Amino acid sequence: MMVPVLFYNNDDLSRVFSRTQLDNSDFNESVKKIVDDVKARKDEALFEYAKKFDKQDLNKDTVLVSKEEIKKAYSMVDAELIASIKLAKKNILAYHRKQTSKFKNSFFESGTNRKSTLGWIYRPLNRVGLYVPGGKASYPSTVLMTSLPAIAAGVEEVIVCTPNIMNPLVLVACHECGIKKIYKVGGAQAIAAMAYGTESIEKVDLIAGPGNVFVTLAKKMVYGNVAIDMIAGPSEILVIADGSADPTLVAADMLSQAEHDELAASILVTTSKSMAIQVQAEIERQVELLERKDIISKSLQNNGAIIVVDDIDTAVAVANRVAPEHLEICTRDAKDVAMKIKNAGAIFVGPNSPEPLGDYMAGPSHVLPTSGSARYSSVLSVDTFMKKISYIEYDKQDLQSIADNIIKIAESESLTAHANTIKLRKE
């Protein structure tokens, strides 16, 4: 396995720049059938799919995780690990509570006589549903990184759906975050249940959290009936490094992302050919020491790249074009370079800010835009769980002063009832 070294001016970089969401349309029909079935038959269909796909016999009395199951989960988790979860919770919650200061209702005088009022009012969503994958990708950090921004926003109720509750740390994380309703269902059927409601699971306003192809397609299908956080693709990291970087650490950071799955992308953009060669050699050495060697090797072969550029400005241009989920900057004057970045999910500045710091402990959510969507979308945050309501209050004199203008525009659109309601107030 050898990660190719490419030269910006001479080599074809289309593979790096053309990364997009995967085409999962082959699964559309089967996912739609599940979603429509749960929408129509509610709990009956939900429990049938739980038995079929997750080998669970559930009913309205057993679908919810019990206090006894939570207690058992705590007994199975090391005390130091629980302490780490508590510290991560503290950091994540503190970070997101800082964001709430900008969500202030605002009103200002308007109109010709300044007796009218315009403004906006912020309100948190009422109920949010979180999806936490089961099996190999069952991560307690997903619970922390999705629920705590919602809690900081003031969401009244947060529920979780997760299949096969075999990971006790997921239940511990839910309990530490104050989540009282954890449902033992997964897949497209869980997304449909949260989107449309069943006898056991109440309809939510927004669904957040990652999942497999069935979960992802189900989120796409129910969008509009509920909000969703984003459509997540394979994970990505792009590292900008100059000759001052440590090649051992750069290689380790690239490998840490490649171990997610074969579709993950790990890219280095460097101004130093010597750095490129050293990182390439370090990747070859370190990969042999890692448990997920096979996954990492396939990931790097399929989606890995080391790109040599002439200068930092070109490196920044490459990064902005890729719009990576995670962007590490390992250069001199790393803060200055960071300020030139326009497109990234999260920026990790300097040698002591590796990507796993953001995954677990720093504070910002690790739920980030992928597949180039950082060009137009943002990290999951308090903003995700807030809505903005316009406030309009005009007095009679101000309405009269612009009535004719409103009437003219309404009539130009053939909306005579719109015009009429203004005419009545004018008369």
Structural commentary:
This protein is α/β, with parallel strands linked by helices and 427 residues long. It is 45% helix and 16% strand. The chain has a six-stranded parallel beta sheet, with helices on both faces. The protein has a five-stranded parallel beta sheet with strand order 6-5-4-7-8, with helices on both faces. Strands 2-3-14 form a three-stranded antiparallel beta sheet, with no helix packed on it. Helix 9 links the parallel strand 7 and strand 8. Helix 8 packs parallel to helix 9 and helix 10 crosses helix 11. The longest helix is centred in the first third of the chain and has 21 residues. The radius of gyration is 25 Å and the shape is globular. The relative contact order is 0.15. The model has no long low-confidence stretch (mean pLDDT 94).
Protein traits:
single chain; about 425 residues; alpha/beta; six-stranded parallel beta sheet; five-stranded parallel beta sheet; 17 helices; 14 strands; about 45% helix; about 15% strand
Secondary structure topology:
Elements (H helix, E strand, L loop, with lengths): L4 E3 L6 H4 L10 H14 L1 H12 L12 H9 L3 H21 L6 E5 L5 E9 L2 E5 L8 H14 L3 E5 L6 H9 L4 E3 L3 H10 L9 E3 L4 H10 L4 E2 L7 E6 L5 H12 L6 E6 L2 H15 L5 H11 L1 E4 L3 H11 L3 E5 L3 H5 L7 E4 L5 H6 L25 E8 L2 H17 L3 H11 L1
Parallel strand pairs: 1-11, 4-5, 4-7, 5-6, 7-8, 9-10, 9-12, 10-11, 12-13
Antiparallel strand pairs: 2-3, 3-14
